[in-house]
Write a structure and sequence with these properties.
Helix content is 58%, strand content 0%. It has 84 residues and is mainly alpha-helical. It has a single domain, classed as lambda repressor-like DNA-binding domains (434 Repressor (Amino-terminal Domain)), CATH 1.10.260.40. It is elongated, with a radius of gyration of 16 Å. The two termini are 30 Å apart.
């Protein structure tokens, strides 16, 4: 799963857990479009990162950046031998 899809999945799960079932109402509260929220949650949003930050903040989440010096999860299996 790519980073945008992960962000979207977490946002969608959090929105639902908080009881915000209607994206239109959330969008109106934030002053962004329902389409933006839908695209963020599907991991295909190509608009302003400020809208992503605004939406995540509304959900009690934050967008952070970190160095990519860690191997992807998919590569970890090859790094460890299960024969021990």
């Amino acid at each position: 799963m790519n980073d945008l899809k992960q962000i979207g999945a977490i946002a969608k799960q959090t929105r639902k857990a908080l009881g915000h079932k209607n994206m239109v109402v959330v969008a109106q509260q934030l002053g962004i479009s329902k389409n933006d929220i839908s695209e963020i949650e599907r991991g295909i949003f190509r608009g302003s990162v400020l809208n992503v930050i605004k939406y995540l903040s509304f959900l009690g989440l934050e967008l952070t950046a970190s160095p990519r010096n860690k191997p992807p999860l998919e590569d970890l299996e090859a790094m460890f031998d299960d024969e021990y």
